[in-house]
Write a structure and sequence with these properties.
Layout (H helix, E strand, L loop, with lengths): L21 H12 L4 H10 L4 H8 L1 H6 L28 E3 L4 E8 L3 E6 L4 H12 L3 E2 L1 E3 L6 E3 L6 E4 L6 H14 L10 E5 L5 E4 L10 H5 L5 E10 L3 E2 L2 E3 L4 E3 L6 E5 L11 E3 L2 E3 L2 E9 L5
Antiparallel strand pairs: 1-2, 2-3, 3-14, 4-7, 5-6, 7-8, 8-17, 9-15, 10-14, 10-17, 11-16, 12-13, 12-15
Helix pairs in contact: 2-3
The chain binds pyridine-2,4-dicarboxylic acid and zinc ion (ZN).
The site of zinc ion (ZN) has 4 residues, from loops.
Length: about 300
């Protein structure tokens, strides 16, 4: 697998004779339109169990010629998107320029790809986001990949809300800073989500990408494509507990106010080691903002 959404092996199972369904043709056209390479798509299909003749039929010269051209990259404040969201970290930088702020680099990890940022938001910005969200909180839902809808989830006991992108000067400023920091256009991000965890609340370990094997995922992906990366920013520290955990690698990030934890996943697969959770809050209240970055414009 490469940087593409996986061709679901459940909907396109490997057989002796593999007809190219309209659904597969659509998937190929969407992936090409999103700018994924022919080589990457071939690897995705191989990984999903397709045989070479079916891959050639789906991705040969005739199919490629019939597909729409990839769109011109969107020019956001961070410039055109690169392959993956993420900060430039060459030369073991201590700070990353986020436009209106020099953000500290506190920790980097390669696999999973994790970066912890210090001083990403000021105390006033954290308080402003909490104040704007407080009256709009509701028990958190999670996106249901089984149906493409949303549902209450016992694994997630926080309250939450979403700001619309750019809905206030503060939200806009924070989003522009994130776009510069991670070199990913504002338009490719979901609205900022705010979560509040009361004592005992937690978010059990999960992946943030949409599981390609689930039947509701194609519906979800129509709006902006796959999630590629997550940035969580702590707005208020719990008195105790509430760290962000990465169980595959034994990492726990302390939820210090103004600090951000970024992680990216170049494929929607557990091999990215991006299983992560919000540890139970043991005392006080934890508030966190989450920004998810998509493959394409999230309109
Ligand atoms: O609140 C957190 O620490 C947390 C942990 C894991 C939030 C999310 N995931 C999320 O919003 O996806
Ligand atoms: Zn998560």
């Amino acid at each position: 697998m490469t940087d593409t959404q996986q061709a679901s092996s459940s909907s396109h199972s490997a057989q002796a004779s593999q007809p190219i369904s309209p659904e597969l043709r659509r998937w190929v056209a969407e992936q090409m339109a999103a700018g994924h390479s022919n080589t990457a798509l071939r690897q995705s299909m191989r990984d999903a169990g397709w045989m070479q003749d079916a891959i050639d039929a789906a991705l040969g010269p005739a199919a490629v010629a019939a597909a729409p051209a990839p769109p011109a990259p969107a020019a956001g404040p961070a410039g055109p998107p690169t392959q993956e969201p993420g900060p430039p970290l060459e030369g073991a930088a201590l700070y990353v320029d986020a436009g209106d702020r020099q953000v500290q680099v506190l920790l980097t990890m390669k696999h999973p790809r994790v970066v912890v940022f210090g001083d990403l938001l000021s105390d006033e910005e954290c308080e402003g986001l909490i104040a704007g969200a407080r009256e709009r909180l509701a028990r958190s839902l999670t996106v249901e990949t089984k149906t493409g809808g949303e549902a209450l989830n016992v694994d997630r006991t926080s309250d939450g809300m979403f700001f619309t992108r750019g809905e206030s000067p503060l939200v806009q400023r924070v989003e522009e800073r994130i776009a510069r920091l991670l070199h990913w256009p504002v338009e490719f991000g979901e609205g900022l989500q705010i979560l509040r965890y009361a004592p005992g609340a937690q978010y059990r370990p999960h992946y943030d990408y949409f599981d390609p094997a689930e039947p509701g995922t194609p519906t979800i992906l129509r709006r902006g494509g796959q999630r590629l990366a997550t940035l969580g920013i702590y707005l208020q520290e719990a008195g105790q507990g509430g760290g962000t955990t990465f169980p595959d690698v034994g990492l726990e990030v302390a939820p210090r106010r103004g600090t951000g934890v970024f992680f990216s996943y170049d494929r929607p697969d557990p091999s990215t080691r991006t299983l992560h959770g919000g540890a139970p809050v043991l005392a006080g209240e934890k508030w966190v903002a989450t920004k998810w970055l998509r493959e394409r414009e999230f309109a």
